[in-house]
Amino acid sequence: MNEPEITSLERVETALAVKQADRVPVAPMIAIHAATIANIPVNDLLFDFEAAQHAARKVFDLYKGLDIITFMPGIGLMYNSPFISTHSRFFFNWQFGAPNLPPQLNEVPLMGPEGYDKILDEGVIPWLKRPLDFDAQEMLTTTSKMKKEMKYWLRERQIHTFISATSVTPFDLLCQFRGLRNFFVDLRKQPEKVVEVADFLAPGLAALAEFMYSEIKGVKRIFIGGVRGSATFISPQMSAELFFPSLKIMVEYLLQDGFQINLHFDTDWTPMLDFFNEFLPARKGYLTLQLENTDMQKAKEICGNNYCLMGNVSSTLQKMGTPQQIEEECIKLINIAGEGGGFILSSGCEVPIDAPFTNVKAIIDSAYKYGIYKK
Amino acid sequence: MESLDKDRIFRDLGKLFYGKNEERFSLEKFFRSINNAEVIEERLIRRNTNE
């Protein structure tokens, strides 16, 4: 690795602006995997700020060459916050315990069909529960420490911190409230009600992300997770009618306030790629599509003019493959999506907790070997 | 909140948490809601466990 001409921060910002830097930035999305690298229990990574802080530095130093630090100490706030998200243990039945496993969601239906009107009338508070061991002061202290950590990576290390707050699409949130099977029946039996409530939730979820940003600061960039509006679950027509309208409300809300958005969309969105152009505003430099099982070639063709693309080395390969196989996949991705810039080489979703070190390192090294842009 | 529209954010947070008739979110009310919420034991964070 030669001395870079520009900083990682500049390289990433250039890619996010859908422009070409000196090389393809590389940032496999390391979160829970950090526990393996730092050899600490998962719950320490999530809920012991100092242990997670140490893990972040270890990940960065061992995996030399990362352009983004994709998890922050304080990542446990996703689970340990009463502000609603799909990961909040105040609303959903997350189980913590096994030292070497990520938290597990026991997804059970939390509301019946009458719940949609209840959300309109009473909001989400009726579903709020207080875990016995919740300590509000600890949550506030962690938030404050996280704010300082953001400054450390951005100012002292000149490394991009990826996002400052996370949110979820209203569609995914409702699905989690209602339970997968019930929700998909609702999509047939009462689609208008689902859309009405999703539209109702959208401004609040965007506002919540902005509120969290105001507490943490850092990069003005919001992560929106989406899964269940994809072709893995529903038809393109249903996605257009039932999923994208409320996403559009959220995206417009955040763009109006000057936020960049990382659309972290797992599973397969290939048949829906046109909708990202049709429904969402064309704001080059503000939107990233982080894709998991979506066809990256089609994503580049259809969305590459407006969106920075991020992804999507196969999780299976990261866990089960060899460094050679990963290198071959990275070369393919760089050739497909790296053309002209606007691409960050990454995993689709998180790096598997037990992916071998050499496999993750192979992703990083591939960007340095094969991702150089010719001047 | 920098240049963000604080009024709009708190208005929309109010509706998200308390429904369409809520005019404005307040942290004071929210923390009261947390304190009044049903206490549950099954979502504990088990620290330093090697079970």
Number of strands of chain A: 9
Q: How many angstroms separate the termini of chain B?
A: 44 Å
End-to-end Cα distance of chain A, whole Å, is 18 Å
**Average pLDDT figure of chain B:** 89
Give the assembly state of these chains. Answer: heterodimer
CA-based shape of chain A: globular
- How many β-strands of chain B, per DSSP? 1
Question: What does this protein look like?
Answer:
The complex is a heterodimer of chains A (375) and B (51). Chain A has helices at 8-16, 33-38, 42-47, 49-62, 115-122, 136-156, 170-178, 180-189, 191-216, 236-256, 273-279, 296-303, 315-320, 323-337, 357-370, and strands spanning 94-95, 104-105, 129-131, 165-168, 221-226, 260-265, 287-291, 308-313, 343-347. Chain A is an alpha/beta fold and 375 residues long. In chain A, helix 9 (191-216) packs parallel to helix 10, helix 11 packs parallel to helix 12 (296-303) and helix 14 runs parallel beside helix 15 (357-370). Chain A starts with 7 loop residues before the first helix and ends in a 5-residue tail after the last helix. In chain A, 53% of the residues are buried. Chain B is elongated, with a radius of gyration of 16 Å. The N and C termini of chain B lie far apart (44 Å). Chains A and B meet through helix 3, strand 1, helix 5, strand 3 and helix 9 of A and helix 1, helix 2 and strand 1 of B. Strand 3 (129-131) of chain A pairs parallel with strand 1 (38-40) of chain B, so a sheet runs across the interface.
Keywords:
heterodimer; A: 375 residues; alpha/beta; six-stranded parallel beta sheet; two-stranded antiparallel ribbon; 15 helices; 9 strands; 48% helix; 10% strand; B: 51 residues; mainly alpha; 2 helices; 45% helix; 6% strand
SSE order and pairing:
The complex is a heterodimer of chains A (375) and B (51).
Chain A: H1 8-16, H2 33-38, H3 42-47, H4 49-62, E1 94-95, E2 104-105, H5 115-122, E3 129-131, H6 136-156, E4 165-168, H7 170-178, H8 180-189, H9 191-216, E5 221-226, H10 236-256, E6 260-265, H11 273-279, E7 287-291, H12 296-303, E8 308-313, H13 315-320, H14 323-337, E9 343-347, H15 357-370
Parallel strand pairs in A: 4-5, 5-6, 6-7, 7-8, 8-9
Antiparallel strand pairs in A: 1-2
Helix pairs in contact in A: 5-9, 7-8, 9-10, 11-12, 14-15
Chain B: H1 6-18, H2 27-36, E1 38-40
